[in-house]
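User: I'm putting together a small comparison set for a docking exercise, and I want a reference complex before I start. The sequence is below, and the ligand is 6-O-phosphono-alpha-D-glucopyranose. Could you produce the 3D structure with the ligand included, as structure tokens?
Assistant: Of course. I'll restate your input first, then give the structure tokens for the complex.
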Amino acid sequence: MCGIIGYIGNKEAFPILINGLKRLEYRGYDSSGVALLQNNESIIYKKKGKVSDLENFIADSDVSGNIGIGHTRWATHGEPNDVNAHPHTSLNGHFTLIHNGIIENYGRLKDVLVSVGYTFKGETDTEVLVNLIEYIYMRGNVNAELAVHYALAKVIGAYGLVVLCKNEPDQLIAARKGSPLVIGIGEGEHFIASDATPIVEHTNSVIYLNNDNVAIIKKNELTLKTTDNDELTPNIQKLNLGIGEIEKNGYAHFMLKEIFEQPRSIKDTCRGRISLEEKSIRLGGLHAVMPKLIDAKRIIIVGCGTSWHAGLVGEYLIEDFARIPVEVEYSSEFRYRKPVLNDTDVVIAISQSGETADTLAAIELARSAGATVIGISNVVGSSIPRETNAGVYTHAGPEIGVASTKAFTTQITVLSMIAIELGMKRGTLTPKESNGLMEELILIPEKLERIIKMNDSFEKIAALYKNANNFLYLGRGYFFPVALEGALKLKEISYIHAEGYPAAEMKHGPIALIDENMPVVVIAAKDNSYEKIVSNIQEIKARKGIVIAIVTEGDTVIREMADHVLEIPKADFALAPILAVVPLQLLSYHIAVMRGCNIDQPRNLAKSVTVE
Ligand code: G6P
């Protein structure tokens, strides 16, 4: 979603801003812009389309200046066009603003401003806010900082914002409520951004803003306050992120790099957490809530998109190993119904980014109802880990491709560890069973390496079906969520319509779609319902459907029936979703490449969805 970058210091701001915008492209956006302070005037360039369109548009312009802000916009209020792109400037030109989030009461604020003579160029809520700041500044005869404070007191909604005032050209003012912001501290310079990716190449000293923080950022000075104007002591942290982690390192796309990274990321997720000698799993972040988890009457898993799919696998794992009832809900549904919750419930919120607005709202609801809330997130310092009672980081490393891959497999890895640990502590797994599962988990990275080596075979199948209009994905048990995730991957990046279904449900509807043009991907690795899925394959073949089957290596039965088989190594079937999803990721990837799609930034999608 929207991205923010700002700079104040002695260097030329523009190269830092434009490079920062490129680093933020992965979040998903439809327009971009920059504002630079030149001779006490704010100069704005903005353009619909990619950052490269903005660069071309500015090519012959004067982009000098040591203070500036830049933004990538993902449209919410008003269509994506040059006018609605950020930065926005106020009517009399005193203020320039970039903003992530949504000002919910912007309509009422706009009416007030119109009644005192303000006019608007576009349809955004941000343009309303920048004019409100200016109105207060001029009318109240206050300085820029106070004008921002007073304006924010009138705002209902969420924001991460940075303000430039041309009359006070030695500072940037930033504020956060709901939408993340991080300040980078350099030598005689400061950076501000919506996440650390544009900052990491400049400094690794950062301050994460908390909700209701306002920062007054000067070249050599930084003041942190609450929105009530009380001064705070900044908590400077070290970024644990290398520049190599946010670059493609020779891969054609981030998505491919991230698929290939999965053996390593799963090792990192397990590192120091599984001890085969001590026959134990140690998830330090859950230590304090372990008694609650062990005695939980019910676990509710919430998440969105791919994280919700991981939650479904978690349901199977926890019920299987720990025998605790589990429900899995879309965060967006959970937050708006009236879920029955009490203090014996544990809610597990799963989110790669740690910033998804619906999941954050679900957490708030669960907490206020007295439930224990655990976060599973990939981004250290993001909002979800900060808002939960306890949690586990996935340690997948930065995921830049919009279509989630390594986050999914590491989320399942964490859920497996939680389920095994609970199974041991509740006595629902025998020592033999838990040891066997831990040994299996340790072997997963090496098995993934073997799957990745078969990349060429996935590419060959992709070439055969790249022009299909529809795909069906079927699986049973643990492989049903994998079918959903496979279909989602294909939709997201190739724009081919795809549906995931529990295989047995096929005959209640989707079977009507099957003919000789319908590729059906069946996840048919060996598990306790193997015979059933073999029957499902026969039902598809009887209707001339094309079967692409994911099978356990050595399977001869399905090889006879299916049009194509893709083998995955043998594994305990509870852990096999981590393996089975990888051929599906690669199949989607190759199809999308062959269709000429934008792999890492698919149309309309955002990496982290910070609005509802
Ligand atoms: C967006 C992303 C998906 C992701 C979902 C949930 O839709 O494009 O890849 O699964 O958000 O994001 P989260 O960061 O909460 O896992």
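The first strand starts at residue 3 and ends at 8. The radius of gyration is 26 Å.
User: Thanks, that's exactly what I needed.
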